[in-house]
Amino acid sequence: MERENGEYTVEINGIFHWIKIEGKEHNTIPLVIIHGGPGGNLYTFERTIGPLLSNERTVVYYEQRGCGRSSKPISETAYSFNELIDDFQEIVEWIGSEKVDLLGYSFGGELALEITYAIPNAVNKVVLSGPSLMALKTQYMIQIAGFMSIADVPLADKIEKILGENSTIETKYNKVWGCVDIDTMDRLLFEDQSVAKMYRQLGQESNLTNTGLMLKILQENPAKIPLTNRLKDIHSTALLITGAHDRNTGIPISKIIHRNLPNCEWTLFNRSAHFPEQEEPDKFVREVLNFLKTA
User: Fold this and answer.
1) How far, in Å, CA of 179 to CA of 121, rounded?
2) Within a domain: residue 170?
């Protein structure tokens, strides 16, 4: 039985997951939105881009365990990819659709790839917006370089000093993040600072916080076989969207994915940084809907 429009609280694997369905009347393959973070939520997407997509598609929102409006697991370590994938598989069964499309942004793009690798028969098409590859040290380097590219002189000096230290790239990365303020983070993630302000206001309005637990667990427990080595085995048709100014995951990460993912088309958004869906919403919606409609 396919579900109707509305908000639901569904117990899956001992976690009360927040799920919302819009656009059921279109009777399309459900498009499941997978948020980033790790540990983020869908509050902003739900109020900006989501309604534009649900004008034509059935859209399913869900927030991952311990995220947003979903409850936390009892164990503070229960945030592995395997557990996230198990949750997703149960959610698809609850939705009642044989297959779903995926739209994952930032870390959600990486999770969408992990899901598609693990349960390919449940996935039709995949949209990846600014996806991450957290296990790569390159990811740390891209973000540090991103901060350098928008830093004022005092912060740039601090970063240069940190980079000169005899420590691991992970230690340097954490020290750099410890130096940045909100305005600097906004400049990292957005080209248009008016969009950054709107995004931050919605985040504050949501009153939802990221505990950081999921990020910590995933960084400490990487997959035995890196996702980069498994991309060749993912055969769902994919649309990869990258902001030309993305300083967070960046063009290098997208190039790795595009080069190794067999059925992947790639489009650049020239006026966007890490969130093309927020900085170029009309183009984003048009590209996604056209991709999903194509046979």
Assistant:
1) 44
2) yes
Q: What is the extent of the structural domain holding 166? A: 137-189
Which residue spans within the chain are E strands per DSSP?
A: 6-12, 15-22, 31-34, 59-62, 100-105, 123-129, 237-243, 264-269
Residue 180 in domain: yes
Q: Are 58 and 21 in contact (CB under 8 A)?
A: yes
Residue 243 one-letter amino acid: G
Contact between 31 and 53 (Cβ < 8 Å): yes
Q: CA neighbours within 13 Å on the CB side: how many for 111?
A: 32
- What is residue 17's predicted lDDT score, i.e. its pLDDT? 98
The verdict on 72 and 122 lying in the same domain is: yes
Residue 1 confidence (pLDDT): 61
Whether residue 1 is contained in a domain is answered as: no
Does pTM top 0.90 for this prediction? yes
Question: In the chain, what is the straight-line distance between the N-terminal and C-terminal CA atoms, in Å?
Answer: 25
Residue 125 CB-half CA count within 13 A = 19
- Is 99 found in the same domain as 67? yes
pLDDT score of 39 more than 70 = yes
Structure-token pair, residue 43 = 């509050």
Asked if 91 and 159 sit in the same domain, the reply is no
Whether 246 maps to a domain, the answer reads: yes
- At 93-113, the pLDDT tens digits run 999 999 999 999 999 999 999
CA nearest neighbour of 269 among 255, 287, 253: 287
